[in-house]
Amino acid sequence: MKQIRLFLIALALVFTTAQAQSEVANRMREHIAFLASDALEGRETGKTGEAKASDYIEAQFKSLGLSPKGAAGSYLQPFNFMNRLMPTDGTQLELNGKKLILGHDFQIFPQSGNGEINGAPIRVGYGIQAPPLGHDDYKDKGDVKGKIVIIDRGTPDVNDPHGKFADYGAIDLKVETAIKMGVAGIIFVNPSNQELEEPVINYSRKVSRVSIPVVYLSSSVTKGEDLKSLKGTVGLNEENLTGHNVVGLLDFGQANTIVIGAHYDHLGYGDEGSLYRGAPAIHNGADDNASGTAMIIELAHTIKGNAALHKFNYLFISFSGEEKGLLGSNYFCKNPTIDLSKVSCMLNFDMVGRLDPEKNTLGINSVGTSPFWKEAMAGIQIDDMKVKTAESGVGPSDHTSFYLKDLPVLHFFSGTHSDYHKPSDDENLINYAGADKIFRYVDALLVKLNDNGQKLAFTQTKNEEEGEAPRWKVSLGVVPDYLYDGEGMRIDGVTDGKPASKAKLLAGDVVIKMGDNDVKDMMSYMRALSKLEKGDTVTVVVLRKGKPKKKKVTF
């Protein structure tokens, strides 16, 4: 009888735990379904959908009894930002008396100043001054002060990455050189001896603008044309918007505070950052990052009701502007609403809704930021879920802003997938059972933090993304599997229309060689990319279901 009674008690405990887990998952489903609905139009920072999302999150914080910790007694912390540059209504340009069409015949570089272009331009070749090489394109051109100059894109050695002019071909450097020469305006063109693609102008790019017009004339109007006369006015205006962090505090009267955060913004209709190559469409961002937002709301719910977790205060922050460059978290860390010196650590949740059932691996980044993390994590096991860690405190998410304030951080991440930054990142694809595992893992970690009860020591980490990481001019057009720990670079997704797609590379392929370069990991993959130029064709070797396949890829 006693054994039966014990069995029934154990069964009841299992049932109660499973029921509690199911309630968490069900509430997460409600949060994600709302935040990732078409009605919010992709939650772009500064737009109507962001306001609807912040209203929802604020209502959740209020219902859980969090105190407002935004600005002036509000849950909201506003921040202003430059969203994009837009050509002024008065922008117009004529070549040899013929009116040109903006966006087709000519483009304005984002570093351009506003002003007039008027006169007979002077050609100055590639616009390069390289004293160590004994090269000066302005030599013998006469006095160019106050003149309009025409500069060829690229370099004399056809952009050879190992050529002697490799360090002199950047647009910004050519602009800087021309301004030192006192020119009144710069016209970039493609050189007649090279087949260069038209430049892609990014008007959301954060650049320092100069005082003179900087324009590109397309090959369709310059080919075979004698550029005798240019006349017109060029101007760019800034579109400034306001984003909002949502900030709430669970105050248990403790000396130190744990910050728990997740960004809630996404890509709107996909103008910037999208990997989708179709007509503008709503990017709902269910995994990125309605999932993280739902996670922190449910953590607030659990922490409030569990006295064992009350040895710290908890500041919950839903950041906006993450997709535009960590704007919200950067602003908060520079304008904190609590004393950051009393913050023990920051936990960041970005894409925690798509735990792959086969890999069953949770990524936890930034474990090198405190000696406590590895010790605490060694004793946590949730079902059969595996954990893959990375050391660096710097990464492409909001924990970076806190790490740069010398605070211990962790970034929880369930992995990339083929719907990343595409309209197909929808609620129906969320793995709620997997999200529940991650939730229970974090709950167990919070127990460890409270058992310790002390403000965590901070450790600076080696930053893999600075110094060692090479820069590259081309893209393969894939989403890497950042949780892959085998040899090579495993592809998690392929972007339509990009080199990988055209070469018929597939999700699941493992890149082991690019041209003459072996690919052992992400770093060697990036090094291989850095040696390539647009137009290069190389043989890429991949493992597909364990068997090597060779593919010709043109960048």
Q: What coarse outline follows from CA principal-axis ratios?
A: globular
| Percent of residues in beta strands | 15-25%
Oligomer category:
single chain
Structural class by SSE content: alpha/beta
Distance between the termini: 73 Å
The helix content is 10-25%
How is this fold's topology laid out?
Blueprint (H helix, E strand, L loop, with lengths): L1 H34 L12 H16 L3 E2 L7 E12 L4 E4 L2 E2 L6 E3 L6 E5 L2 E2 L5 E2 L4 E2 L11 E5 L18 H10 L4 E5 L24 E4 L1 H4 L7 E5 L1 E15 L6 E7 L22 H19 L8 E7 L7 H8 L8 E7 L11 E5 L5 H7 L8 E5 L8 H5 L5 E5 L18 H21 L25 E3 L8 E6 L4 H4 L7 E5 L2 E2 L3 H9 L6 E8 L2 E8 L1
Parallel strand pairs: 7-10, 10-11, 11-12, 15-16, 15-17, 17-20, 18-19
Antiparallel strand pairs: 1-14, 2-14, 3-4, 3-13, 5-12, 6-13, 8-9, 14-16, 18-20, 21-22, 22-23, 23-24, 23-25, 25-26
